[in-house]
Amino acid sequence: QVQLVESGGGLVQAGDSLRLSCAASGRTFAFSNYAMGWFRQAPGKKREFVAGISGSGNTTPYADSVKGRFTISRDNAKNTVYLQMNSLKPEDTAVYYCARQSAPSRRPSALLSTYDYWGQGTQVTVSS
Q: What is the mean pLDDT of residues 34-42?
């Protein structure tokens, strides 16, 4: 069993920053072997890819909408993945989810179907 718990969301103003965290746990979960991803879902919209990171942290794809503003990172010693969000915009308002890619040693993917475990989400609201 794998558990993912996000934290760090909140209400901020446009231009502010937030850092989200996702702590992973699970008795047989070798965290550093798996790519992780951040996704978000705004009201009435489909869940969309935000950023991904390989197990080593060397590969980090981003959605075009967040490139240059958001940074994904991980600390494998703490089984935690982060999403640093700068220059936030009202259109970044959404519930943010972290997820584990289903197979080890894969490159991070933007496809939701390639992720098997998801956190409960953390709300990010950006006011104008």
A: 97
